[in-house]
Amino acid sequence: MPNHKSDQKRKNTEYRMPIKQDNISRRTFIKELGIAGAGTLSLLGSNAIAQNIQNANADTKPNILLIMTDQQRWDAMSCSGNWVQTPNMDRIANEGVRFTNCVTTSPVCIPARLNLATGLYSHNTGVWNNSTHTMSPDTPTWMQAVRDAGYRTSVFGKTHFTPHSNGVDLRTREHLMHAYGLDDVNEIPGPRASRRVLSHMTAIWKEKGLWEAYRADLEERLNNKPHTIGPTILGLEYDADVYVGQQAKQYISNYSCEEPWCCWVSFGGPHEPWDAPEPYASMYNPNTMPPAVSRPPRGGRETGHLDNLMQQNRRSPNFEPGEIGRLRADYAGNVTMIDDQIGEILQIIQDRGELDNTVIVVCSDHGEMNGDYGLLYKSNFLNGSVRIPCLVRTPDTLNNSSLDRVCDSPVEWIDIGPTLVELAGGEINYQQFGKSLCPVLQDTNATHRDFAISQIEGETMLLNQEWKLALNSRAKPYLLFDVNNDPEETNNLAGRSEVKALETELRLQIFKHRSQTQVKMDVEPKSKKFVTLGQLKRNQLLQNFPNPFNPETWIPFQLANETDVTIRIHDTTGNLVKTLALGTMQAGPYTSQAQAAHWDGRNDNGERVSSGVYFYTIEARNFSATRKMLIRK
Ligand SMILES: [Ca+2]
Fold it and tell me: For residue 131, what pLDDT is reported?
């Protein structure tokens, strides 16, 4: 990374031990300031003190471990499908609740992940496929709500909140991740994007002389036969899933902040390529893998996106005999590898004495067809693609020995965000449509939702306890399955005269759901793209994008009129630290990093300010507003 060499060297060093090097927690900081006014800040340095704090926390708020995989089918756990060995996921299921009918709200990465973060559907976000999309930094998220509830939040692995375009370096986007609500960040791209998007992980691959070989191997697979099966050239030690697991493990192991932690471990696997390293590559016998669901004849029904997928050679290849078994065996190996990483993380939490007071959630953004219907990948509403693992284990479920540990009610994966916020003791004060699973965690026979919704490419699916119906982008029913009597989904009833009334009824439920889940018009504009000047009725000062590892910050605002703008930064005693005279600004939103006021973290004498709380005030014509910010070096 010649562009960032010195900068990155520093970041890498800081990254490895973010907590130990910078051991003043946010809350301590504010508390100290409150007690001592503007006096000097005492440091919480020693592990002994940190340990005491942890012990105190053990009686209060639980830590939160969100484990997410990419492209893990609902049945790829021993507890759900019994063909993949996942003792650690099973343990979480046995100490919590397993949701058997959890669907992703969109069976493909970017829209699904955006939905999870925001609690909004694709018909709200406008993101219906893997199009290039950057989540706006002023988007409210569950991560911010958990952080606001007093947690220190972190992410290790893949988020896909910003585009993975050629040459992007995810390390330059940490300020966005902070704005989304994540304090400590080590983001990686998925396995495909890792050949062209840089990260802390690819920097290591490069240093070890592995990156070019990884790129060449992946290119060859993609150009030749995308579903080539064979171990990654990275080996076990440098495999991306091992990297994510070990980074999270190290972070939790070293964690010494006062706040309870909320750690999101987001594995890039078992997303293809089918390249599990040994010993996982040969752990499963291809001949004993469950057979793929055959593709039924189409019949005279309406067509939809699924039919497009079935016509594409890449997604619907001519499988060689035995190939699907080999794909599945490799995939199972990858899942077990991830499960082993989860086991190591659980052990670390147990060693810290925190396991009993930790919330653990396991989920995946969508599934993988792995040959069902003759298909690879996802992007459709069939079980292999749309149903996902969903396990929720809390201190209460752990201790509730009489709890029925399986819940068959339809649930949506956007329900996870509000669940974590509630368990964190936080509040969601923004509009969203996720629904906390907490009530059903106490009574798993209750109905959480009458139906669950999923969307892709302008299409919508409804799943209730009896039926699955999908409308194509012309809102015509084209998939209808009796979920109890046809669990493999090989008898598509759509279009038959005897189900006409049923189709009409379910279709009306989708329309009603759509009308009831519209974003209110007074919600803040989501990004510059959707903002017209006429919508900006008032001036507004927005929350800065903090960067805990760097004193630089970006201050966004919006102007209703053209005016002179000045931003002044004060310390807690009211002393003026820095004046940013921005001059005459036109009306409009100044919300992206490029537009927002940039403060380099230096005072008017050019000296770097110390870590601490500051206030920034905007003056624009008659408008003035002040917000608090935290600068951490
Ligand atoms: Ca994905």
Answer: 85
